[in-house]
Amino acid sequence: MVSYLRTVGLFALALGLAQLGPSPAWAGMRSSDGFSAQERARLEAGELVARPRSQRRGALNLTGGTSFQVIDAPPDVVWAALLDTGNYPHTMPRVLEARVVGRGPDSRTVYVRQGAAGLIERSYYLNIKHDAERRDITFVIDDSRPHDVKAAWGFYTVRPHGAQRTLIGYGVMADVGGGLLTRIAGSSMQEWMLRPPNMLKGFIERAGGGAYR
């Protein structure tokens, strides 16, 4: 497995943790040695490895963590699928709509509507930066636009894992606010938030990856 030193740096930047000092909760991302034998076995078996985390920061009640998944497809396929905004309903929980509303050379702004159609919906805009050379992505809620989520930010990393396989790392911290959505989701909210790598695996391995090969 590859070194996660770059990933740690990205996550510290994305979460604003640099000024708070090192956090033991993320120490396991520094290298392949950070995975326990059980976690390595789960990854090789095609299972999601999730490391939940919650944190209070000022007025924010943040929930999320990191998750890791091995995908049976080469990194260029996974990277292409990850950058395709049209895949969000297949690779992120409960996404009802996703569309690009702004674009730069290595960035984009994406409108996302998420929830249960006509019942519980929340919408927001994500500012997304992508480094094609390193295959790293960071994202954060655009506070300058309307948003029903108090705060959210995180990252994706795409790395080779043996022959024609990929190890994807994902991290997110968010305060989705209270209300009906939080009451319905309850304790499953955090599990729900860490599912994207597993959803991406299912999408690519079932059929979706063919378009990017």
**Biggest sheet strand line-up:** 1-2-8-7-6-5-4-3
Query: Could you give the order of the helices and strands?
Result: HHEEHHEEEEEEHHH
**Structural class by helix and strand composition:** alpha+beta
Poorly predicted regions are: 1-33
Topology:
Elements: H1 5-15, H2 37-44, E1 49-57, E2 60-71, H3 75-83, H4 88-91, E3 95-104, E4 107-116, E5 120-131, E6 136-141, E7 151-160, E8 166-175, H5 180-185, H6 188-193, H7 196-206
Antiparallel strand pairs: 1-2, 2-8, 3-4, 4-5, 5-6, 6-7, 7-8
Report on the structure:
The protein has 213 residues and is an alpha+beta fold. The protein has a single domain (5-212), classed as START domain (Alpha-D-Glucose-1,6-Bisphosphate, Chain A, domain 4, 2-Layer Sandwich). It is built from seven helices and eight strands; from the N terminus they run ααββααββββββααα. It has helices at 5-15, 37-44, 75-83, 88-91, 180-185, 188-193, 196-206; strands at 49-57, 60-71, 95-104, 107-116, 120-131, 136-141, 151-160, 166-175. It has an eight-stranded antiparallel sheet with strand order 1-2-8-7-6-5-4-3, with helices on both faces. The chain starts with a helix and ends in a 7-residue tail after the last helix.
